[in-house]
Batch of 4 targets.
Target 1
Amino acid sequence: MKLHLSIFHKLLIALLAVSLIPLCSLWYLSQTSVKRELNGNITQNLVSTMDAVAAGVGAWENTNVRALRQAAHLPDIVSMKAERQIPILKAIGAAYEWSYLVFTIAPDGTNIGRNDGGAPINYADRLYVKDVVKGADIGRQVVISKTTKEPSLLLAVPVRNEDFGLVGVIAMGTNLKEVTKTVAAARIGNTGHAILLDASNKVVANGSLPNGTANLQDFNNYPALKAEGIYEAPTEFVLDGKPMVGFARKLPQGWTLLIVQGRDEAYEPLTRSEREARTLIAIAIVLVIGIAYILGKQLTRPIRELTQIATELSEGKLGVEIPQTARTDEIGALAKSIERLGISLQMAMDRLRKKA
């Protein structure tokens, strides 16, 4: 079946092509530029937030570790005698308000001295103790404290004698308030937040919870950690059916720091730009259709009239009045040609009558 296109349809197609092709091309180039710039901004926001949180966590830990290392060199601590150690342990505990316990441990895990006056506890099962006994410079572990029964960070360093032999461990139990404050303060828009995980991917602090409260939730199956490339660059993933964008980094402590944000919020400027562009294109289409309709009417009405006149002339109705002859465009020229045709037909008919 042959497709029949009227002047209106052809005019509409031509106007749509002339208006929409440049408009869509400009929209595509603009969106590409906006997306490139927005990706750069998202990366910058995530990385700068990451750097700020990592620096805060690192500085806080370094402060505690430095205090422990300084104390580990004191003769009273090296003596591994509780009566000599306790005054120093109490002084350290008083100086660092976020510490709830400062204590020493023998290589076999036996608790020697502690600043809280509590009964000795055996810490042989604690990872931070095992690591130091095995030779690590720093032992760290996020645990449910045996003392406070709450999530806590335990830091430990070796105590060595003059021959550099290990005689014990000095450790500090800290609540996570300072860490959670740092993590909770890291916000990007309404949905962007930080999550700090320990070496076993348990939550140390979660900025999406009230005040960043830690609950040691297991995040081994957290979708962001399974997103390919998330440690190299901001990467998209899905969390509970919602699109997210995230960035992860391994900290010197062996911990993982995650910065995540809702994708809809992160890309809201791009979404808004696309929405405005679609609205503009829709308006352009409506205007083009309206203009094509008006112009089509102006073009097709006189053509239909002239077509009807030509039909009447062919039927012998030579006295018909021919409009549009005063126009100076192509339609006017066509009208004049039909008028001359009518005159010629009239003259021919007159000659035939005379011969008859």
Note: DSSP finds nine helices and eleven strands in the chain.
Target 2
Amino acid sequence: MADPTAERIAQDPGGAPGLAGSRDSSSHHPDPIGCDVSLPLKGVFHPLGFTVEIATNSADVLAAAEANWKSFDKVFSAPPVQLRIAMVEGEAGDCPPPPTCRGQRNLVMFVASPYDFAVCDLTTGFASCWLSASTVGNGAYLRYHFLDAMALLLIEALYLTPIHAACVAFQGRGLLLCGDSGAGKSSLSFACARRGWTFVSDDASFLVRRGKQRVVVGNPCHLHFRESATDLFADLRSHCPTTRINGEIAIELATANMPEILTSPQSPIDALVLLNRQTSGPASLRPFPRERALQCLEQVICYGEEHLRDAQKSSLRDLLQAEVLELRYSDLDSAVGCLEASLRAAD
């Protein structure tokens, strides 16, 4: 019986061509699929406080990682995840379309083109990635579709549970603001931050799966708004909406340019608040069924083997030992005031 792998290798006896930083020229054994490609450039980064080690043959890859994660310091001593990123040299071309993501068991793949793809092993925290020079040259595309995608996927699988929620803290007490797209997570978290709250995340938060503490980490460096947010915050009208790399049109603010806003990359969680925007009426808080909240939160747990999903769902059940509330509101000022009054009353 013919070996299809051997046949493919035989069709390309010269090995993987065009690699920026090939294997040692003194070695004479064949390397048709790039197993021994030299990736001499190293970098260590700490997205969300966890360690990511990168080996690559492109200084531009390390520069993109530095731009992406320079604001994060090491917080957690967990073993690092590892990314091996090989750039293939060639003629300049257009950036490929966004990658297609597919997965089975412990493997997840991102495929944008025959020259731009990655495979992530969720069990070992390891990713192998091959990219064209054109893709590496597009920093925004590289950061969003490959660096963030690989690093956060592996960190989540090993240590975190994703939560579709904003996170803010008032006098040391953290709240997760949960809800579907359009519920007002970004707007309400921004309104809280402008009232002196600590801002952690406006849309994507991550529960740390360790011990019994309910700790959430996030990226407090940016806020993203729909164009309609200019009706709520007049000062946003001076900021032009842009098309983000994921195709969404949004207004993006860097919190580094707003020194009046307090930020933190993490917060303990005292309560979850499900947002229910109304057309009129005063803001009010009421208990919300934990099982319904769990169903909402579980919707973003969708990859990895069963034991990984079970671990993430178990951490959500532990998180829901905190108070779970529904906030009905029609305007931001009354909503923030209602949340503050509730937290003060709990002291």
Note: Confidence is low (pLDDT under 50) at residues 4-15.
Target 3
Amino acid sequence: MIEQLAATRRRVLFSVNPRAGARFRGELVDQLHAELAKFDLTTEAFTDINQLRERAAELMTAGELRAVVAAGGDGTIALLANHTPPGAPLAILPLGTENLLAKYLELSSDTAVLAQIIADGYTQHFDMGEANGQLFSLMAGCGFDAEVVRRLHSDRRGNIHHWSYIKPILDSIRNYAYPELRVRYAPSDQLGDELTEEVSARWAFVVNIPRYAGGLNLAPGAEGDDGLLDVCTFREGSLWNGLVYLGGVLLGQHESMEDYSHIRTRRLVITAEPEAPYQLDGDPGGTLPVEIRVRPRRLTVLVAHHRAVTQQQEAVESTSASSNLAPQ
């Protein structure tokens, strides 16, 4: 559902992540400050997340917060969601390596366009996942990809670019053991969240919004506002199997593979024997086990006017279609 912020909400906070992307483009942050001033919006910038959290909560309580600008990548967005009150509108200035959520929302780093979006004040609500208490917007991964992320960040020195992944990928190919993952879950058609079903795999992805690095779409039918998580698993563990699965995803044929399973759920728990890492939106999450839940409508994002109009039209058409199908 699309909503519009009250005109009285005039304050915009910036969260700046200088380590996002291949190089931090601080000049874009300065340009956005200047563009917002044209709309008489007051801006404040923070590099300390705790200070930003306190200020955002204060302005939300006072009814003055128009937006918190995430100047960074998908990890910056997740960080802000974890440190701002529910309902705090996030505006995305994509400066990361992949910027998957920004691409999904058709947002660019054009500061004049983003300033107009913030001034217009149209917001859209999305679900988020919560993994051991940490929120994520896009997906959680357990398996080879999480091992690559773990290695990348353990050796991280400064900004990340696509070439940064080569060494951790090669190291993971040589050393990753593909431990068995046990996924216990509550079926989506079940009342309550009791974990009554189970599947075993060597690769597991928990998808909220269907975007993954490299343009891969693991769960084509996933929707970010349906109150459910889409869990995609692959059964066998080896580099060869991984390449076969990757080819299936690239060709859009993985859903027909015998090794593939697709689950929709509100709650699941993933364990591994032996130990294995998991990642959240491309950042290290920790080590399994992990309990994951959906948090409906937890993410509020400022969107372009044309997207708001499209979403409103689709909502009207859906309501109309439902009415026509109802018994007369």
Note: Residues 2-126+298-319 form a domain with the Rossmann fold fold (CATH 3.40.50.10330).
Target 4
Amino acid sequence: MRTITHLILATALLFSGGTLSAVSRPDTADSRTDQIVRKANETIRHSMMALDNIMNDPENSIPPSLITRSEGIVIMPGNYKLAVGIAGGQGGRGIAMIRLEDGNWSNPFFLSLGEGSIGFQLGAQKSEVILLFRNKEDIMGLDRADLTLGSDIGVAAGPVSKGSSSTSDLRFESEIYSYSRSSGLFAGVSLKGGVLSYNQRINDSLYQMIDVSPEVILYQTEVPVNYEVDDLITALDMYEE
């Protein structure tokens, strides 16, 4: 199963302009780190675009009151689901942020989403996914253990605003609310069984540390870490109630 997941993640990175081909080139360590940092900032920019796309979609728009009440958010701007015959899975890369004690959003840390599946399937799908977390503690320990959606923690499709102003009294009835926009041959987006993993390499490269933990990124780094993060935080603040 893990082999299938790795293959899907590799394919997703290739589709999204990943840096897998760098393995075969004689680049220096510094140039490879620079490449990873550029890809990290690109993921942050794409995360802001995914947020805009979902919030401007009347069928998927997140009620602003739920963004205000959430303590954590995960944005996967390029999640890919692929299946051929009996092998299938999904994979992608994204970011996680939490709400700090002062009410502001933290710097992001980077995650990977993977899942393997067995059963006859055929198709491909690309989706933008946003997960709102009721409790920030649920994503704080991802450097120590992966998080399986629907198993380790409950996930449900979130209520949408559809341009209505009557959503200010909404409350979290699930540990995670999910929102998505997708294109492809699969019907809908299913995240149950998806595994969120901490991406140590990207986090170390962006924050220029070795074995940097979520706690250090979220609580001990100056916010925002760069202009891309500043723009994303500004967008999140704009969409809150």
Note: The chain has one domain: 2-239.
